[in-house]
From TrEMBL, chain A:
GO terms for molecular function: cytokine activity; growth factor activity. This is Interleukin 11a. Residues 1-26 form the signal peptide. The keyword Signal applies. The keyword Oxidoreductase does not apply. Pfam families: IL11. Gene3D superfamilies: 1.20.1250.10.
TrEMBL record, chain B:
Residues 42-94 form the Ig-like domain. The chain crosses the membrane at residues 346-372. PROSITE patterns: FN3, HEMATOPO_REC_L_F3, IG_LIKE. It comes from Anabas testudineus (Climbing perch). It comes from the Eukaryota. This is Fibronectin type-III domain-containing protein.
């Protein structure tokens, strides 16, 4: 009887073992674990989507001549050619500094939007949370590759927005800038991905 | 005697001078007229007979003909053309009463420049081409000076092609919210500057994909393999991914089916067996959702693999009498991770059967094991009871 029991247990065990390949072949394509650079680019895309939603729902559909923000990250010196020749560490540091600047600007916008009871406040809170998340991810990556952290200069923000229209205009301007910044940052992250792999191998 | 001598000498000198003047003026007429005067169509135009004070009367000719458009000759010998039209254009020459040529001027008529209608094409992140159309037809040769800048930037030249009326900017600062183009058109009458503002990221529109190829797949009568190349104007770099849309329909059908791809190939799994299909592909920047789809590539015709070589009689039907698909059949699928339908289904069935057998066996084995254990427990309990009875019956 004991022999029978033992054999039945081993049969059961073998059956369970036999199921393993069945379960593993259940997913036809093995899932590749996202790298840190994948996470950075995905999070940037997520921010682009959020920005797009905010622009669609809470800003006006026209391109205004920008004038309010004087201390946004400089984009006039970035061309498509630069993306071909990005260096890993300086670019990560620069993007970190830029994101910190945007964080300050969005926090300011959130504060003034709250004052004017602007309906975009919940989305702005979400935006700030996602920017912080991207900054943390980026900081982790910077530590890995030993990229220096540069403290951004204190931004000069508009002192007072008396009218609701001013809030709308500022919101539109900031979001337009941020959308383009995210476009550039996303392209920078996917361009830098092979360079991070090389650094990791070395 | 000196008076007699001086008379013929003077006459000779005058004759020589008049001959030389005539010949030199004829030379001017034969060559390009150096002095050009511009006038507005429909206005009055005054042509002066040279710069210096001229003795009157003078005679004016147009293209060496004495027939002139509606005109007046003023007291100082100038020609006043009234309400000029295109027919008044030409080479005007004025002569003195002796028939000596005094002055030649070319009159060109037209309008001063108006504002330009400007449009810009952005086929990639490194090149902007802006072209323009005149809102006013000037009829006069123009010069263009074009400059370009992003907000907060200095003006940089936009390189002008006068013949094609466009200008090119290379490596613009693409990631700025607003860009401005300034074009100054100058002609003989006036100059006008036009400003145009736009967002490059919204104008971004790749050229259509190139070298589209559609191949049958042997053994699969419902499949077509579609491949293409990136537009040659698009930079091949990780930073500039494109996404593609492929549309196809059996020839004669009005409804397109669509699939999308992020690489430069895709497989159509639901082609109509034995039928000729029309296939096209277009591209768009994968990152920038404000950008535009390219135009569709040129149509390509292809037929899926067929076991029979004899032509299908239905193929001979005219294009507009397509016998199938009365409803729109447009859908979008991603070609990535698509399991081939035939083998996929068969494999899935086998997998399910195997899995059911395994589960059934496992359940049966478990029941068996539980049953065996229960039996064993019963047996042990009986043995214990028997031994207890035995023990009780034993004398202490």
């Amino acid at each position: 009887m004991k022999l029978l029991l033992d054999s039945s247990s081993s049969l059961l065990f073998s059956l369970l073992l036999a199921q393993l390949p069945v379960f593993t072949s259940g997913s036809p394509v093995p899932q590749r674990r996202p790298t840190d650079m994948d996470k950075l680019s995905n999070q940037t895309k997520n921010l682009m989507k959020l920005t797009q939603e905010l622009l669609r729902d809470h800003a006006f559909d026209s391109d205004v001549e920008p004038h309010r923000f004087r201390s946004l990250p400089e984009m006039s010196n970035r061309s498509a050619n630069d993306l071909n020749n990005l260096e890993l560490k300086p670019t990560l540091s620069q993007l970190h500094t830029d994101l910190k600047l945007y964080e300050h600007h969005f926090e300011w916008l959130n504060k003034v939007s709250k004052k004017h009871h602007h309906p975009a406040v919940p989305k702005l809170v979400e935006m700030i949370r996602e920017i912080k998340s991207l900054i943390n991810l980026l900081h982790r990556q910077m530590l890995k590759v030993e990229a220096p952290r540069v403290t951004p200069a204190t931004p000069s923000l508009p002192p007072h927005l008396p009218y609701h229209f001013d809030v709308l205009q500022s919101s539109h301007e900031l979001l337009q800038h941020f959308k383009l910044f995210c476009d550039w940052a996303y392209r920078a992250f996917i361009s830098l991905k092979p360079k991070v792999t090389v650094t990791a191998v070395q | 005697m000196p008076g007699f001598l001086s008379g013929p000498v003077c006459l000779t000198v005058v004759c020589f001078l008049s001959w030389s003047l005539r010949s030199s003026c004829a030379q001017i007429l034969a060559d390009e007229v150096s002095d050009v005067q511009y006038g507005r169509l429909g206005s009055n135009v005054t042509l002066a007979c040279g710069k210096s004070k001229i003795r009157i009367p003078v005679v004016w000719r147009l293209n060496q003909s004495s027939a002139l458009p509606w005109h007046k000759v003023t007291s100082d010998g100038a020609l006043l053309l009234l309400n000029v039209s295109h027919s008044a254009q030409g080479n005007y020459s004025c002569y003195d009463s002796d028939g000596f040529l005094l002055h030649v001027v070319k009159l060109m008529l037209g309008h001063p420049p108006g504002l330009l209608s400007i449009s810009c094409q952005v086929p990639n992140h490194t090149h902007v081409r802006c072209s323009w159309v005149e809102s006013v037809k000037t009829f006069l040769p123009s010069m263009y000076n074009a400059s370009f800048r992003g907000n907060g930037q200095e003006w940089t030249p936009c390189i002008v092609d006068v013949i094609h009326r466009h200008c090119d900017v290379h490596q613009p600062a693409f990631w700025l919210t607003i860009h401005t183009l300034r074009i100054t058109q100058t002609n003989g009458l006036n100059s006008e500057t036009t400003f145009a503002q736009f967002s490059l990221h919204k104008l971004l529109k790749p050229d259509p994909p190139e070298s589209l190829s559609v191949q049958e797949i042997a053994g699969y009568p419902k499949r077509l393999n579609v491949s293409w190349n990136f537009p040659s104007s698009w930079p091949i770099h990780d930073a500039f991914p494109l996404k593609f849309q492929i549309r196809y329909k059996p020839q004669g059908s009005v409804y397109w089916s669509e699939i999308s791809s992020e690489v430069s190939s895709a497989t159509i799994y639901d082609a109509l067996a034995g039928h000729l299909h029309q296939v096209q592909v277009r591209a768009r920047d994968e990152v920038n959702i404000d950008s535009q789809w390219s135009e569709w590539s040129a149509l390509l015709l292809a037929r899926p693999w067929s076991a029979y070589t004899t032509p299908d009689p239905e193929e001979d039907l005219p294009n507009n009498v397509f016998p199938f698909s009365s409803k729109p059949e447009t859908f979008t699928t991603k070609p990535h991770n698509v399991v081939p339908e035939d083998e996929g289904n068969l494999g899935l069935v086998i997998l399910l059967v195997l899995f059911s057998v395994v589960i059934l066996t496992t359940v049966l084995s478990l029941i068996f094991v539980v049953w065996v254990r229960q039996k064993q427990r019963d047996h042990v309990t009986k043995q214990e009871l028997a031994s207890m009875v035995k023990m009780k019956s034993m004398p202490i």
